């Protein structure tokens, strides 16, 4: 029986661990507690064509349209066609989705042609899924290592053979494995404003880069249009707008129809830019999300988590509009994989937000993220169990390779400061990017160094690696497409497809 290491305890990691454990010995590594992941905070739900008035073909079309012609169609068709069965598997594992008149309740979200977003606990879908899967993992024959940081991938003879980790009890140590599955989520902590939890520092992508794996489409970071404009950037689900809430400027005027015919239900990248431009016009003041027409009673029942959060901040959103701002939310890019989770390194797999299958293109369709993790984690488990080799063909379309400067370790370089890095990324590599700002960001990042032996220092090193790669990729993409918008190159160009990014000679951190 082979030993497999799974890194990450969101939906992708938990599903992969559960399915692989049916045939192999599995060790699940997570740097915080088991329930600490992006999945836990997912509010809106999970999209799938589950009813007769909807179809897989329409879900595919919506996903492709949102992705701005950069999706891998094969991955999209797999996502949408296998999704319904995977939803049924979640129900079998104990996830209790909300129902109406005995049928699965469905919500409407931006850029969907049908109401197909399933939810649980009103707006606590991710938490319901996380708790059900954790229960299943606890009951399975899986070794769980909490508070254990994945530091480096171990390679011998060109193949992954394990993982170096740091934990409170044993310090640095090595875990041997026949395969490693990275499912460690995104990197929202690159930015000042993010809906992601503190653990989202992009560790999986960074250690894969250092091991020599291909990464792709890292310039595409999605900003959620509506986070509460208070400390913590609490997410206000897109489902609120799907149910009828509207966006207003400080004078009370609806402004999104000036930006896009879809108004508040335009694709996320469009709504985020529309809000950002409106905020600039009103001297940085947040815009207002007006859900008062839905009524306080409905809001408390349909969105209990958001309702409690608003009250905790002293806001009565049933009677008054609430201030919102865009915030970094989801990374379309990541470790490049095929549609089975295989990477360019034998023995290394990646699933969920850590991976880039090309399924989301340049802009993820709302509520496709949990579905992606579910579908591709299941597929990944199949090939891990079969001990399948590294993928021979990855992703779709032509590629352009770009390189970022390696981490410099000279004593003369300035130690990276996370707050400064986040501010720099928000300013120069956020909702709007341009050549001058990206060049200045590259210069500043090149003057920083990162190394250390504590978890926060290692996280900072990973963020610096990813920031440099993202700046290089955004500089190389001289067009506007999906979540990547450059006022100095406003048109979308056929000359740009997928971009592979790599960091030359990045040292192993010690």
Automatic annotation (TrEMBL):
Entry EC number(s): 1.4.3.16
Residues of the FAD-dependent oxidoreductase 2 FAD-binding domain: 4-370
Pfam families per the UniProt record, alphabetical: FAD_binding_2 (PF00890), Succ_DH_flav_C (PF02910)
Gene3D superfamilies for this protein: FAD/NAD(P)-binding domain, Fumarate reductase/succinate dehydrogenase flavoprotein-like, C-terminal domain, Succinate dehydrogenase/fumarate reductase flavoprotein, catalytic domain
InterPro entries, alphabetized: FAD-dep_OxRdtase_2_FAD-bd, FAD/NAD-bd_sf, Fum_R/Succ_DH_flav-like_C_sf, Fum_Rdtase/Succ_DH_flav-like_C, NadB, Succ_DH/fumarate_Rdtase_cat_sf
Domain Fumarate reductase/succinate dehydrogenase flavoprotein-like C-terminal: 418-492
GO cellular component: cytoplasm
Enzyme class per UniProt: oxidoreductase
Cell location: Cytoplasm
Coarse class of the protein's main subcellular location: cytoplasm
Known catalytic reactions: L-aspartate + O2 = iminosuccinate + H2O2
Pathway: Cofactor biosynthesis; NAD(+) biosynthesis; iminoaspartate from L-aspartate (oxidase route): step 1/1
One GO process term, biological-process aspect: 'de novo' NAD+ biosynthetic process from L-aspartate
Cofactor: FAD
Keyword Flavoprotein: yes
Domain of life of the organism encoding this protein: Bacteria
Keywords: FAD, Flavoprotein, Oxidoreductase, Pyridine nucleotide biosynthesis
GO molecular function, one term: L-aspartate oxidase activity
Family affiliation: Belongs to the FAD-dependent oxidoreductase 2 family. NadB subfamily.
Known role: Catalyzes the oxidation of L-aspartate to iminoaspartate.
Name of the featured protein: L-aspartate oxidase
Organism the protein comes from: Granulicella sibirica
């Amino acid at each position: 029986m082979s030993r497999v290491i799974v890194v990450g305890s969101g939906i992708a990691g938990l599903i992969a661990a559960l399915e692989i454990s049916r045939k192999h010995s599995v060790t699940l590594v997570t740097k915080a507690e088991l329930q600490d992941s992006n999945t836990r905070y997912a509010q809106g739900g999970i999209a799938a064509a589950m009813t007769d008035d909807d179809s897989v073909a329409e879900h595919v079309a919506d996903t492709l349209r949102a992705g701005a012609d950069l999706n891998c169609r094969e991955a999209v068709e797999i996502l949408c066609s296998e999704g319904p069965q995977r939803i049924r598997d979640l129900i079998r594992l104990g996830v209790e989705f909300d129902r109406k008149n005995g049928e699965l309740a469905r919500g409407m979200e931006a850029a969907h042609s049908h109401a197909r977003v399933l939810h649980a606990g009103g707006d606590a879908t991710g938490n319901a899924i996380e708790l059900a899967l954790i229960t299943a993992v606890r009951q399975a024959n899986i070794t769980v290592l909490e508070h254990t940081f994945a530091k480096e991938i171990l390679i011998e003879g060109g193949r992954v053979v394990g993982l170096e980790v740091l934990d409170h009890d044993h310090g640095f140590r090595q875990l041997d494995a026949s395969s490693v599955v990275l499912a460690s989520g995104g990197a929202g902590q690159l930015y000042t404003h993010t809906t992601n939890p503190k653990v989202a520092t992009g560790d999986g992508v960074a250690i894969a880069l250092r091991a020599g794996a291909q990464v792709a489409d890292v310039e595409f970071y999605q900003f959620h249009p509506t986070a509460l404009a208070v400390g913590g950037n609490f997410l206000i689900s897109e489902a609120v707008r799907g149910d009828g809430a509207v966006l207003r400027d400080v004078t009370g005027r609806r402004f999104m129809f000036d930006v896009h015919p879809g108004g508040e239900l335009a694709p996320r990248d469009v709504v985020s830019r529309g809000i950002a431009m409106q905020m600039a016009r009103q001297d940085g003041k947040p815009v207002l999300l007006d859900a008062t027409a839905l009524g306080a009673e409905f809001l408390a029942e349909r969105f209990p988590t958001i309702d409690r959060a608003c009250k905790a901040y002293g806001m009565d959103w049933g009677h008054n509009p609430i201030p919102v701002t865009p915030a970094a939310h989801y990374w379309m890019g990541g470790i490049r994989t095929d549609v089975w989770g295989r990477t360019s390194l034998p023995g290394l797999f990646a699933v969920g937000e850590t991976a880039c299958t090309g399924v989301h293109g340049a802009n993820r369709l709302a509520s496709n993220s949990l579905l992606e993790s579910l579908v591709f984690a299941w597929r990944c488990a199949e090939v891990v169990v079969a001990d399948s080799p590294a993928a021979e063909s990855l992703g779709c379309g032509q590629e352009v390779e770009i390189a970022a400067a390696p981490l410099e370790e000279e004593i003369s370089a300035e130690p990276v400061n996370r707050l400064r890095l986040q501010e720099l990324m928000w300013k120069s590599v956020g909702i709007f990017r341009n050549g001058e700002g990206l060049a200045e960001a590259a210069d500043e990042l090149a003057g920083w160094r990162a190394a250390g032996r504590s978890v926060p220092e290692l996280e900072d090193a990973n963020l610096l690696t990813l920031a440099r790669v993202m700046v290089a990729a955004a500089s190389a993409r001289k067009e506007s497409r999906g979540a990547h918008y450059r006022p100095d190159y406003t048109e979308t160009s056929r000359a740009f497809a997928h971009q592979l990014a790599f960091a030359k000679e990045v040292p192993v951190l010690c």
